[in-house]
Each structure stands twice: as C-alpha cells, then as structure tokens.
Design goal:
The protein is of the alpha/beta class. It folds into 2 domains: about 1-50 and about 375-430, Urease, subunit C, domain 1, CATH 2.30.40; about 55-365, TIM Barrel. About 30% of the residues lie in helices and about 25% in strands. Helix 4 (about 160-170) links the parallel strand 11 and strand 12 (about 175-180). The site of (4S)-2,6-dioxohexahydropyrimidine-4-carboxylic acid has 12 residues, from loops.
C-alpha cells in the first residue's frame, strides 16, 4: 500500500531538515521525501497543508497499568490514547501488579501489546525486585526478555549502594537507568509542592529539595559508575542547575520533563483538585520557566508525559487520600504547542527532537527520522487547530486531567505506524 503525505511542513531534526516536502510511503517504509511528488495510480493521498509532519513521537514514560491494574488502564486503551495523542510508541513503566521485575512479565507485556496494542510498546523493567529498593532484579534476564530500560518509577531507590550496582549492571547491557528522584524522608506525608500555597491550603508540602538531593546523589553515582543515567520527570529549577553543572563536568546523563511540569503550576491545586495531585508535584512559575529554558537550551533532551491514569473513584476522595498522577497522552502535544511553541519559547525542531529522535537514541529503539528507507512512523500535527479538552472524549480509561475545559492549540491530526494510518483527525482507526 502506498501513501502520499502532501503539502505539510517536514520537521526532521536528525536530518537537519525543515521545509515543505511530500512524503511517499511504500510497504511500511519512507520511500521518498521530496518536493512536489506526483501521486501515481493506486496511491492514497492525505493532504495536510499547514500541518507539521514529523518522525513518529515516542513517549518514553507511560503507565499502561497492565497487568493487574486494568480498572485504571489496559494495554489496549492506553495505546489507543497514545495513538490519539500523536504517539507511535510508548515505553511502559513497570509499576504494575505484579511488578515487571522479571522476564515473564516483560514477555507478557510484549505479547499482549503485539496482539492488542495500537502503537509500539517498549517495556521497562524494574530496577529492584517488587520496586521495593532492597534487592536488584535479574537485570540480564530483563535485558534478554526485551526491557529497554530499568526504573522503579513511582518510587526512588533510596539505598545508594543498590543504585550504584544498578547503574553498573545496567551499563553492561547498555540499558539506561531511569531515576525517580525523591528522598522519601524529605517528602514523607507530602501531597503538593511545599510553599505559600500548601500553607494556605493546610496541605503537607513536598519541598523542591526532596527531588534535588536525589538528583545530586544520582549524578554523583553516574560519574562514579559511568552508567547511563536518565532523570525522570524533573520538576525544579534546582534540578536544572544540578543537571547543567553535571553536564559541564562531562557526566553522562539525560533528562526528561513532562508537559504538566512545563506548563502548569501549584495553583492548579487550589480548590483541592485531586486531578492536579501528581508526583513530583506541580511547582512554581519560576520552576516552569527554568524547565522550559533548559528544554530550549537542549539541556533537557526529552518531553515525556508520565501518563498516570487512575479510576474516578480513586481520585474522588479527600486530597490527602487520592493517588498521585494525571493522564497526559492525549493532551501532551497541544499543551506544549499552546504554552511553549506558539509563544516562541520552543522551536518545532526542538520539540520534535524531544519527542522522537532523542527518546529513540536514549532507549536504543528504532525511529526518530523520516529519511528514505526508515520505517514509516509519522506524527502529523495541526498547529492552528483550537479545541477544548474534553476528558469524556479520551481513549484512555483515565479521565484524571486538570485540563478539562481548557482551550488548547495544536492537536495531532494523524498518527502513522509502519505506514498504516492509525489515527486521523482525533479518531483512532484500529
Ligand atoms: O504522579 C505519579 N504517578 N508519579 C509517579 O511517579 C507514579 C505515577 C503512578 O504510577 O501513578
């Protein structure tokens, strides 16, 4: 089957290419990337004037909740949410039930995703057994079964010696260790950012330092081990500063930021909105600005959603009792377009790299380029489309978004996986 994508603006950071080109897809691969390709017989044409055409977006931080937590999300629904959000692939966090800390759970996720998934799924294995932080998982087994990274996301590895060994062993298999940076003693009992607003609301705060002391520790361990450290969802200006110093010293480290930490502040919590309860917590405008500048300065390489679906009844409780997390797959792109790209704080090239070539490189998975011969994984975005967020339209089972009713620009117009259109104009076709 041949497909011709006509009239869009190509943004391909790996090829340093930006401009009006057509893309011809044949047999699941990019066959040509040229100006004014003539549609031959039997070629399906999609006209996308004014749209951005980019290498398929990869979200490297997603909670699919399967196995075991299917009342929150499943591989089928989570990957459809990904397709709706413009993503061709997701990396699935291991805090499932059971935890993905052994080869059989990794194999289960891969097989289930192959049967029921709408997009590519790359499982992440747990660093420690049960993500308890006490004993390393069988890292060689996880690598052999196809885990693309290791993480105890949702929890830190509090014991520095165990984190050291994790970085050393994972390094032997070229697997990144994705660190959830939180000192549990400093964050204990906290439910939102510690500051003026937590005081006014009478809620226990999580200080910026709870993240920063662990960022500092993990950077020291990365220097010591030469392991591949990736900092998950960093949220504070102080973490950005530590990252910058580490990179200046030549420490091997990469980092990600979520759209919500870039765009939303702790003020979302006013009114005790449990859909704004997330870990790390939403911080201050100053933190958002520092994260945005770090992304634009290419100090932070990745945008990842930390899509964390929860059931309505779990969130519909007093603030203290609600679980941390918000859904993100279906609003990630328009949130970043509205808050950063439209105001000129981030270029399309930077955003596309942070969503495609950079996560592909870090996870060592295919993707990230539209060069002829590459697999035809493509994301198309309409920067001008304005629409209100309506959680009832989400493909995700999780409706826990603080963005309900918010007007955003720049919605994904199509998602193409292996040459097949799996989402068009917001409608998932598989
Ligand atoms: O808010 C969060 N929710 N942060 C995490 O690190 C884990 C996630 C979850 O699994 O719900």
């Amino acid at each position: 089957m041949k497909l011709l994508i006509k009239g869009g603006r190509i943004v391909d950071p790996l090829q340093n290419l930006e401009g009006e080109y057509d893309v011809l897809v044949d047999d699941g691969k990019v066959a040509a990337l040229e100006r004014n390709i003539k549609p031959g017989a039997g070629v399906e044409v999609i006209d996308v004037p004014g749209c951005i055409v980019a290498p398929g977006f990869i979200d490297m931080h997603v909670h699919l909740r399967e196995p075991g937590l299917e009342h929150k999300e499943t591989i089928a629904t989570g990957t459809r949410a990904a397709a709706a959000g413009g993503f061709v692939a997701v990396a699935a966090m291991p805090n499932t039930e059971p935890v993905a800390d052994n080869a059989s759970v990794i194999t289960y996720i891969k097989e289930k995703a192959a049967r029921e998934g709408a997009v590519r799924v790359y499982p992440i294995g747990a660093i420690t057994k049960g993500s308890k932080g006490e004993e390393l998982s069988e890292i060689a087994d996880l690598a052999e079964a196809g885990a693309v990274a290791l993480s105890d996301d949702g929890r830190p590895v509090m014991n520095a010696e165990i984190m050291r060994r994790a970085l050393e062993y994972a390094g032997m298999f070229n697997l990144p260790v994705i660190a959830h940076c939180e000192d549990l003693n400093l964050s204990a009992g906290g439910v939102m950012n510690e500051g003026f607003i937590s005081t006014i609301l009478g809620l226990r705060g999580i200080p910026a330092g709870a993240e920063e002391v662990m960022v500092a520790r993990d950077l020291i361990l990365a220097a010591m081990t030469k392991g591949k450290l990736h900092l998950a969802h960093i949220s504070t200006a102080g973490s950005v500063q530590l990252l910058q110093q580490a990179k200046e010293r030549g420490i091997k480290v990469t980092a990600e930021v979520t759209p919500h930490h870039l765009c939303l502040t702790e003020e979302e919590v006013v009114g005790y909105n449990t859909n704004a309860k997330v870990n790390p917590p939403l911080r201050t405008r100053r933190d958002c600005d520092a994260l945005g500048s770090a992304l634009a300065g290419e100090l932070i390489e990745v945008i990842a959603s930390d899509h964390a679906p929860h059931a309505a009844e779990e969130k519909d409780v007093e603030f203290d009792f609600a679980p941390f997390g918000m859904v993100g797959l279906e609003t990630a792109v328009p949130l970043v377009v509205t808050f950063l790209i439209r105001p000129g704080l981030l270029t399309w090239k930077q955003a596309v790299a942070a969503w495609s070539s950079n996560p592909a490189r870090i996870l060592n998975v295919p993707g990230g380029s539209l060069a002829p011969g590459s697999t035809a994984d493509i994301t198309i975005i309409n920067p001008a489309e304005e629409r209100e967020v309506d959680v009832r339209r989400f493909y995700s089972l999780g409706k826990n978004s603080p963005l309900q009713g918010r007007k955003l620009y720049g919605w994904p117009a199509a998602t193409i996986v292996g040459g097949r259109i799996i989402m068009r104009e917001g409608e998932v076709l598989v």
